[in-house]
Amino acid sequence: MKKVIIFTLLVSLTLAGKAQSSKTTSSPSTSSKTETSDPDNLASQFFSQVMGVAISATSNTKMYQFIYDWLGTPYRFGGNTKKGIDCSGFTKAMYDKVFNTTLLRNSRDIFSMTNPLSKDELKVGDLVFFKIKSKSITHVGVYLGDNRFAHASSSRGVVISDLNEPYYSRYFYKGGRITESLKEE
């Protein structure tokens, strides 16, 4: 319920910002959008607060909106709905809806679709892979910047976590960027 109220407030502020900016009739050389009337800036400020990452107005707000819509969804192994979802299902759904890219269904197979990256090479939208108490990849999430990532945790459902948390730092394996040849144009 709290998410619905917050989202409604964001939409109201965004619409008010669009209405205010459309009323401005000054010439392009003298007009400038203020932070409070720019809907993209309002959205980025909102998601920055909710997700704990610095998000610019030029960021992929569609990705952050997707994550926000799924936050709190319970974990269910093999699940792919709002009733329950696992880490690879969440990642696959996000890439399908946000990036128009079809991923394979489990974290090991998804890793095979990427160019591996070190932690310091990660960019927003890249994938992060973990080997949790295993010799093979067992978990995947989506990097948000500022060492934060979104994922479906087996104990907490869809959440945003920090790569520097001792648990995730211990089991982090590699980052990955989907190879360009796999992206749909």
TrEMBL record:
<comment type="similarity">
    <text>Belongs to the peptidase C40 family.</text>
</comment>
<dbReference type="InterPro" id="IPR000064">
    <property type="entry name" value="NLP_P60_dom"/>
</dbReference>
<dbReference type="InterPro" id="IPR052062">
    <property type="entry name" value="Murein_DD/LD_carboxypeptidase"/>
</dbReference>
<feature type="domain" description="NlpC/P60">
    <location>
        <begin position="57"/>
        <end position="179"/>
    </location>
</feature>
<feature type="signal peptide">
    <location>
        <begin position="1"/>
        <end position="19"/>
    </location>
</feature>
<keyword id="KW-0378">Hydrolase</keyword>
<keyword id="KW-0645">Protease</keyword>
<dbReference type="Pfam" id="PF00877">
    <property type="entry name" value="NLPC_P60"/>
</dbReference>
<protein>
    <submittedName>
        <fullName>C40 family peptidase</fullName>
    </submittedName>
</protein>
<keyword id="KW-0788">Thiol protease</keyword>
<keyword id="KW-0732">Signal</keyword>
<dbReference type="InterPro" id="IPR038765">
    <property type="entry name" value="Papain-like_cys_pep_sf"/>
</dbReference>
